């Protein structure tokens, strides 16, 4: 037998390469699990190549470390075949450990297959020497080497599987695992070599090609180191990239959270603190005066005339106006005050320090800041604000009481004629209680049949006959007597009660039309007022149609009055509703014309049959040349559009003559007839009944 010998340096290298290959495979397994889709497949392919190449170079360097007294060489084709066996088993191993689970049976099968692969690579590589005569293998050692290959594979698979998820702890563990695996693979190799013996006189056929084995060793070592180094470097960079990505993600998440936190406590439009933050500050302030004494003021501000601007110019202008209001308010408050927006056009100011003079000065500053005109997108807008002030803790020791009482004081300021401030007083609380009581009573009023309709006649100008009547609702309150609509319609609108009330008015009016037709053959039309709240109700058209049908009333007997600002609120939607009412045959009348801001040209788009000039204009007519000019141009425009003009609030004979001369078609007012119950119309409805008295 030929006596083999080993180059110990190369043996050492082969061990190192084995460990490196093992480490690479563990690292790759971690990558594949982290990546997804195409990236995972690329990592599997690249990883299998790096790992296969590593395992194979370990083997090949081991071969090069071995020498016999004869020249040795390796057939390149068979050598490449052994390399591909190594890559294929590596691919299989990597694929196996990246599955979701690795039950014992699969692990065993995998270890057997992979062990066979490694052994296959080794013995194919041996065959590349093409010894003549063939290598003689010692059977037990041969079997042992395969067993070692399988055992090493089993350990490798198990280690790779349990360390496949990347974390801080896995790298050192992988290094340890790699040493064990590397020793296993090398052990298999050297056991295999130990099993082999070369008969005396053997020839290495492959050696005839004359490849210098030292060079081959260097090239293989360099290539292997390069490939594994590249794989590991990419892997580490990938980790860094993931880490920065994670850090960026965490940072933007934190930022988003911060913004959400800000949004939760601030109003998106004006950027002022919102109700939530205000209540928190208010609670804080209350707690502090509770423990340390002292007082502070809660100022509740509600803009006067904001709704009109919003209705007339649209939400966009309304929003811009609110932003400007917020800026002006912010410019007059002090740093220690809290200014918040708590509702559409409602703001609250917390003023620490309880001296009435200081609070009064603050309120004055706010009033004058808001009453100066605003320039919003070229519109010159004038509004004002009403302020209610609660001095805490006297006027409110809880958040709820403080705000409710400031609110009550604000309503009082409004009732004083707006653009004013008012300190809370316990009597206002009674007002508040009164309002609550009123709401409850109003709710019951419909069922208790306490609502009544009065009718005010409209006359063909100048002296009749009666062309129709306007229905005006009243509330026959059991204890307070007859209450006018101005006192309960706003409340009804706020509470939504206007919807059932409006239904009742419509029904009652139609019933009355029927009655007049039946008993007196009187063909009077009735005008019914519609609140903006009802006007935005989707079932309005259906309600009108059903009510008319129920009383068998032709639509031409009914006129619907909507105010100019209600019709302009949501022009397209309004047009749709008005159009369908118009098509039904119901007359449309634009009420209070001239008080809104709408362009006269809008009129062209409205399917209106009638236009009621607001009594404010009528009142000023005689003194104000400008008003007269406006009325006359409205009349002229109305006539070109085929719209009838009604003047309301006619109180004097002068007004009557003037309006007739301007060309108004109909007149309505105390001069000609007050609103009265239907039964009284007979006597008051003669042609110019009261005009003859005056
Ligand atoms: P409006 O639609 O402008 O109704 C005309 C108001 O002017 C009536 O007041 C009427 O009594 C009053 N008036 C009539 N002639 C004269 C006059 O020569 N001089 C003066 N100074 N006033 C005159 P009323 O009945 O108090 O109604 C007030 C408002 O309440 C109405 O204004 C209308 O907007 C609303 N309203 C009345 N009834 C209803 C209803 O059934 N539904 C709805 N939604 N609103 C109603
Ligand atoms: Ca009206
Ligand atoms: Ca009116």
UniProtKB/TrEMBL annotation:
<keyword id="KW-0812">Transmembrane</keyword>
<feature type="domain" description="GGDEF">
    <location>
        <begin position="294"/>
        <end position="426"/>
    </location>
</feature>
<feature type="transmembrane region" description="Helical">
    <location>
        <begin position="142"/>
        <end position="161"/>
    </location>
</feature>
<keyword id="KW-0472">Membrane</keyword>
<dbReference type="Pfam" id="PF00990">
    <property type="entry name" value="GGDEF"/>
</dbReference>
<feature type="transmembrane region" description="Helical">
    <location>
        <begin position="42"/>
        <end position="66"/>
    </location>
</feature>
<feature type="transmembrane region" description="Helical">
    <location>
        <begin position="78"/>
        <end position="98"/>
    </location>
</feature>
<dbReference type="InterPro" id="IPR043128">
    <property type="entry name" value="Rev_trsase/Diguanyl_cyclase"/>
</dbReference>
<dbReference type="Pfam" id="PF03707">
    <property type="entry name" value="MHYT"/>
</dbReference>
<keyword id="KW-1133">Transmembrane helix</keyword>
<dbReference type="InterPro" id="IPR005330">
    <property type="entry name" value="MHYT_dom"/>
</dbReference>
<feature type="transmembrane region" description="Helical">
    <location>
        <begin position="6"/>
        <end position="30"/>
    </location>
</feature>
<dbReference type="Pfam" id="PF00563">
    <property type="entry name" value="EAL"/>
</dbReference>
<dbReference type="InterPro" id="IPR052155">
    <property type="entry name" value="Biofilm_reg_signaling"/>
</dbReference>
<dbReference type="InterPro" id="IPR029787">
    <property type="entry name" value="Nucleotide_cyclase"/>
</dbReference>
<dbReference type="InterPro" id="IPR035919">
    <property type="entry name" value="EAL_sf"/>
</dbReference>
<feature type="transmembrane region" description="Helical">
    <location>
        <begin position="214"/>
        <end position="237"/>
    </location>
</feature>
<feature type="transmembrane region" description="Helical">
    <location>
        <begin position="173"/>
        <end position="194"/>
    </location>
</feature>
<protein>
    <submittedName>
        <fullName>Bifunctional diguanylate cyclase/phosphodiesterase</fullName>
    </submittedName>
</protein>
<feature type="transmembrane region" description="Helical">
    <location>
        <begin position="110"/>
        <end position="130"/>
    </location>
</feature>
<feature type="domain" description="EAL">
    <location>
        <begin position="435"/>
        <end position="689"/>
    </location>
</feature>
<dbReference type="InterPro" id="IPR001633">
    <property type="entry name" value="EAL_dom"/>
</dbReference>
<dbReference type="InterPro" id="IPR000160">
    <property type="entry name" value="GGDEF_dom"/>
</dbReference>
<feature type="domain" description="MHYT">
    <location>
        <begin position="6"/>
        <end position="199"/>
    </location>
</feature>
């Amino acid at each position: 037998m030929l006596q083999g010998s080993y180059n110990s340096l190369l043996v050492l290298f082969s061990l190192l390469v084995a460990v490196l290959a093992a480490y690479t495979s563990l690292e790759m397994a971690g990558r594949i699990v982290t990546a997804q889709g195409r990236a995972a497949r690329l990592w599997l392919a690249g990883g299998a190549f790096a790992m296969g190449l590593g395992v194979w170079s370990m083997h090949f360097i081991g071969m090069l470390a071995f020498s016999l007294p004869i020249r040795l060489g390796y057939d390149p084709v068979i050598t490449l075949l052994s390399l591909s066996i190594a890559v294929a088993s590596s691919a299989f191993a990597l694929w196996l450990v990246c599955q979701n689970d690795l039950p014992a049976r699969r692990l065993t099968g995998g270890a057997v297959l992979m062990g066979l692969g490694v052994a296959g690579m080794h013995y194919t590589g041996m065959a590349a020497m093409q010894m003549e005569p063939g290598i003689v293998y010692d059977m037990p050692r041969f079997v042992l080497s395969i067993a070692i290959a399988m055992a090493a594979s089993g350990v490798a698979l198990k280690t790779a599987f349990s360390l496949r998820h990347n974390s801080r702890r896995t790298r050192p563990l992988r290094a340890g695992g790699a040493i064990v695996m590397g020793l296993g693979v090398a052990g298999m190799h050297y056991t295999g070599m130990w099993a082999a013996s070369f008969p005396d006189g053997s020839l290495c056929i492959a050696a005839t090609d004359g490849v210098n084995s030292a060079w081959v060793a260097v090239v293989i070592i360099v290539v292997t180191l390069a490939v594994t180094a590249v794989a590991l470097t990419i892997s580490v960079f990938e980790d860094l990239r993931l880490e920065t990505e994670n850090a960026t993600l965490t940072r933007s998440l934190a930022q988003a959270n911060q913004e959400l936190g800000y949004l939760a406590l601030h109003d998106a439009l004006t950027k002022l603190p919102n109700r939530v933050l205000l209540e928190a500050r208010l609670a804080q302030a209350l707690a502090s005066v509770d423990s340390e004494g002292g007082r502070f003021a809660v100022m509740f501000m509600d803009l006067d005339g904001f709704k009109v601007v919003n209705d007339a110019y649209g939400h966009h202008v309304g929003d811009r106006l609110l932003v400007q209001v917020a800026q002006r308010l912010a410019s007059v408050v002090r740093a220690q005050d809290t200014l918040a927006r708590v509702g559409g056009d409602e703001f609250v100011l917390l003023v620490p320090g309880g001296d009435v003079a200081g609070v009064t000065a603050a309120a004055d500053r706010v009033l004058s800041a808001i009453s100066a005109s605003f320039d919003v997108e070229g519109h010159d807008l004038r509004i004002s604000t009403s302020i209610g002030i609660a001095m805490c803790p006297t006027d409110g020791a809880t958040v709820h009481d403080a705000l409710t009482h400031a609110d009550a004081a604000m309503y009082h300021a409004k009732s004083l004629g707006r653009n004013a401030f008012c300190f809370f007083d316990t009597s206002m609380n009674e007002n508040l209680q009164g309002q609550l009581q009123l709401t409850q009573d109003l709710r019951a009023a419909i069922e208790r049949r306490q609502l009544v309709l009065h009718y005010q006649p409209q006359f063909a100008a100048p002296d009749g006959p009666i062309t129709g009547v306007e229905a005006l609702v009243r509330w026959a309150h059991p204890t307070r007597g007859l209450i006018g609509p101005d006192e309960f319609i706003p409340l009804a609108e706020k509470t939504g009660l206007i919807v059932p009330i409006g239904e009742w008015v419509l029904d009652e009016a139609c019933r009355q039309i029927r009655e007049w037709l039946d008993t007196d053959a009187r063909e009077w039309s009735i005008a019914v007022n519609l609140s903006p709240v009802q006007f935005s109700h989707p079932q309005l058209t259906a309600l009108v149609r059903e009510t008319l049908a129920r009383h068998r009333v032709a639509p031409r007997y009914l006129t619907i009055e909507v105010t100019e600002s209600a019709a302009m609120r949501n022009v397209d939607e309004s047009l749709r509703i008005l159009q369908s009412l118009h098509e039904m045959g119901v007359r449309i009348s634009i009420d209070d014309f001239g008080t809104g801001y709408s362009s006269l040209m809008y009129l062209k788009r409205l399917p209106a049959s009638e236009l009621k000039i607001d009594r404010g204009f009528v009142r000023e007519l005689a003194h104000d040349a400008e008003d007269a000019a406006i009325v006359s141009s409205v009349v002229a425009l109305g006539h070109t559009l085929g719209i009838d003009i009604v003047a309301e609030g006619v109180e004097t004979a002068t007004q009557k003559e003037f309006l007739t001369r301007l060309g108004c078609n109909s007149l309505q007012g105390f001069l000609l007839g007050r609103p009265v119950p239907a039964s009284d119309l007979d006597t008051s409805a003669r042609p110019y009944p009261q005009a003859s008295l005056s």
